[in-house]
Amino acid sequence: MDDKQKAAAAKKARKEARRAIRRTLADEHGRFAEELGLPPTAIEVSASKSNANRPLPAPPEHVGGGTSNKYCTICLFYQYKEPSWTTREHKAALNKVQQLAKQYAITGRGRCAPEGLNCTLTASANDIRAFCYALRAWDPDLFNPTDFKLEDGVDDSKRFRTFTLRKVDELVGYTMDGVRAPSLNRHAGRHLEAPDYHKQMQQKDTVIIDVRNAYESDIGRFAPPAGGATLLDPKMRTSSDFPKWLNAPETKEQLKDKTVMMYCTGGIRCERATALLNQITDAEPEFETKGVVMVRGGIERYLKTFPEGGYWKGKNYLFDKRMEQAPANKTEEALEKDVESSCCLCQRPYAHYRGQHKCAKLIPSSGLSCAVPVIVCDATECQNIATTEPQKLECPLCVKGYQTPNTAPDLVGQKRKLGLIARGGTDVVTGQRVDAKGSSNSQNSMSQRLFVGKLPLTITASKLRRAFEGHNCKVQSVHWIVDHNTHAFYGSAFCYMASMEDSQRAQEMGGVLRLLHDFRKKGKGRKKQQRMARVASAPLREGEVWPPESFCETEYPPIGS
Predict the structure, then answer these.
(1) Same-domain status, 142 and 69
(2) Rounded mean pLDDT of 119-145?
(3) How far apart are CA 224 and CA 460, in angstroms?
(4) Looking at the structure, do residues 196 and 297 belong to the same domain, yes or no?
């Protein structure tokens, strides 16, 4: 059998498989509608199904067989890899995805980390499917289980212009990359399809956590029925706040002995979030839940399953050119009644993020601007103020004076306790060997000297000190790390803390330090931008003296020779 015959046979097999799936779904549709007490038009069971290990749905006829220039298809997908890719495999994955994107005229953006791949893509209906099948052919074990979420018939104006793939350390900015990452194979939460998730929201002794950022929750969230689940909002400015919120005693009290539900836009954040909670409860026997679940495919798939909205209220914030998603069969009048968010300037009810406006309020604990997106309505006066006086923009969290909990969980210590990192052994998530100094809070790795990486080149010793002081950590000396050959600064430094207590408080920040630095924007002069620096313990080697005898602290990093 030649290649053409094999391709034809594979195409026929996929077509027959889709027919079998449709027959099964027709039976399930009637059963779920009856169980939930809904008319058949209020639920679309087929939309709740994952495409993992199944043929992708064929393009609908109205998009011209997938070749029309009027429409494009949006594809959302993520896939975690455990054990993580090695450095060589990670580079190969980056190259392969870029090569396939070029081959199939894919546009959009993605993040590729050692722990996996996360993408939002656009292309014609046929090309996007060819790209997905090419990924499956390249690495069947990894991408056959991937749930490729497809939205056909999208107006072509929503198509991305180019394709960008970022090389990153972590798919979601939880500051749980590398050895800190919880194991999905052992601790990931259980997936519920949208109809079962809907039913679970009706149960008492249940809490439901929105693991998105607060500004996303402001324009839309689940509203469980009376007598059912209790909704909890972690009030996150960024995803790095979540481990600290989950580690807070008051949060644990709210979750103890409850069934915990989580949700996010497409599911990727819930994968890590549910695994984190399960790891914590596994490591702390006194803190137990009745189970941790997430909605398969996230809000995106729930709203397609319940086109009239189900228990969803408002709009789903999106990170592509659509900006937001609403239940397809919900009227504009009903959507307007759902609006609880408002313009940050005039307080008029409004639920659209436009113009990339951000909160300018300083956070007392860090001395840095909040910098989360804020809503500015379309009134001329509000638009003028936002443009000319951006310092007046303030998000709801800052208006209420909300402060994020300070203490992050000892993720590495928990993994050691649970046998996910053996002493001198291998970390199950990264596949790398970790010595006794790998634990961020163990006495063996505690040191007054800290390594700080990913610093902006415009950093100064004073700015670095102020950032640490915002977390009640005092720095004794700053030592810039330079290239051995050029003697140029490349964004890293050693900070010797004033005491071991200061060092411990710094490491309890979860491995991240927020900095505010200047940058130039073409034609607009200097602006302020927030940056997340990395912090890790840097124990002295045997016999090493710190600071070195020749050390002399300078305010500015060296520029090299």
Answers:
(1) yes
(2) 96
(3) 49
(4) yes
- 442 pLDDT band, cuts 50/70/90, is very low
Same domain, 161 and 185: no
> Does any domain span residue 389?
no
* Model confidence at 443: pLDDT above 50: no
Residues 49 and 163 in one domain: yes
The gap from C-alpha 233 to its chain's centroid, in whole angstroms, comes to 16
Residue 458: domain span: 446-537
Predicted TM-score (pTM) of the model is 0.76
Helix or strand holding residue 313 (H, E): strand 312-314
Helix (H) or strand (E) holding 111: strand 107-113
Higher-confidence position of 75 and 6: 75
| Coil, helix or strand at residue 17 | helix
Return d(Cα 328, Cα 323) in angstroms, integer.
15
Quick: pLDDT tens for 255-306.
999 999 999 999 999 999 999 999 999 999 899 999 999 999 999 999 999 9
- Looking up residue 481, the CATH number of its domain turns out to be 3.30.70.330
SS3 457: coil
Is residue 386 situated within a structural domain?
A: no
User: Are 215 and 290 contained in the same domain?
Assistant: yes
Give the tens place of pLDDT for each residue, 230-256.
Answer: 999 999 998 989 999 999 999 999 999
Q: Which amino acid is at 494?
A: F
In a domain, 282, yes or no: yes
Q: Could you give the number of structural domains in the chain?
A: 3
Q: Is the distance from CB of 472 to CB of 405 less than 8 angstroms?
A: no
Q: Is 517:458 a contact under the CB 8 Å cutoff?
A: yes
Is 76 in contact with 119 (CB distance < 8 Å)?
yes
